[in-house]
Specification:
Blueprint (H helix, E strand, L loop, with lengths): L5 H6 L2 H19 L5 H28 L2 H37 L7 E11 L8 E7 L5 E6 L4 E7 L5 E7 L11 E9 L4 E7 L2 E8 L11 E3 L8 E2 L2 E11 L3 H14 L18
Parallel strand pairs: 2-10
Antiparallel strand pairs: 1-6, 1-11, 2-3, 2-9, 3-4, 4-5, 6-7, 7-8
Helix pairs in contact: 2-3, 2-4
């Protein structure tokens, strides 16, 4: 049988402390659903080496000064507290990252329709009215436009052959399309047999999407104006445009990333210089 002091000795054993603490760390990572266990494995290795080493290095001195029990308790509490804080922060960051990766860019089907893709930078402006980026089609008829509304909201507008207008919006700034930064902007409208969709994608991240429960019909194609609208009085806004492509089909996320990479290869030094400066002129 164990003596009265043996259970206390066993509970204070460095091996027991190490196994318990690291086991809880491992379980926390597993419960959090972390995709990779690399950091958990590193924590296991460091913990197994560090805690016994500290025990051996300081136990003789702690015993000599007579503060063994209190010092061990204090050290264990400090190590566990900081470890728990660090692990909690890391787990929370990974969960946020996972949720963002799941929700930002859902896959959409490749359908007949319209896809405008551009490397562009938008500058904040005090101009009144709509500030058009491109305008395709016919005024009063079928029309596809991208513009900044008077209240500084990026708007993608589609008017079908029946005269019905459909729009989606994306914020300008840090939560949507940033000001005065190069971005790869995609505006798409896809048409299926009995439904359609519209979306706005910025640097591969979908920032706006809507599903329309009807087939949008376009019978007449019109030309495209860049930097202005087609109606009298329409105007553009301050923007830098270095690449523009228009397609009659929508793209999968992988295809959009491939198009973005190909466009950037055409302008290898563009992102090294800020927009709206003379420095990027030599990269055209």
């Amino acid at each position: 049988m164990l003596s009265a002091s043996e259970p206390k000795t066993w509970l204070r054993s460095p091996v027991t402390i190490v196994v318990t603490v690291l086991g809880m760390v491992f379980a926390a990572y597993e419960l959090a659903g972390v995709l990779t266990m690399l950091l958990a494995n590193i924590a296991l290795v460091i913990g197994v080496w560090t805690i016994p080493t500290l025990e051996v290095a300081f136990s003789a001195w702690i015993k000599r000064v007579g503060l063994y029990r209190n010092s061990v308790v204090l050290l264990a509490c400090a190590v566990w507290g900081f470890s728990a804080l660090g692990v909690s922060y890391d787990i929370a960051a990974k969960r946020v990252s996972q949720l963002q990766n799941i929700s930002v860019t859902p896959e959409r089907p490749s359908l007949p329709g319209f896809s405008m893709q551009a490397i562009i930078a938008i500058k904040r402006s005090k101009l009144e009215g709509r500030q058009y980026i491109t305008d395709t089609g016919i005024v009063g008829g079928e029309r596809i436009s991208e513009y900044i509304s008077p209240n500084e909201v990026f708007t993608y507008s589609v008017t079908d052959s029946s005269g019905e207008q459909h729009t989606i919006e994306a914020p300008l700034g840090t939560n949507g399309i940033p000001f005065e930064e190069w971005v790869y902007l995609t505006c798409e409208m896809g048409v299926s047999n009995d439904w359609s969709f519209m979306r706005i994608v910025v640097n591969g991240n979908e920032v706006a999407y809507t599903r329309i429960p009807e087939r949008l019909i376009f019978e007449k194609a019109g030309g495209t104006i860049i930097g202005s609208g087609k109606a009298q009085g329409d105007h553009g806004g301050p923007l830098a445009l270095e690449f523009l492509a228009v397609y009659k089909v929508t793209f999968s996320n992988a295809a959009l990333k491939s198009n973005e990479s190909a466009a950037k290869r055409l302008l290898p030094n563009l992102y090294d210089h800020p927009p709206f400066s003379l420095l990027h002129e030599g990269n055209k």
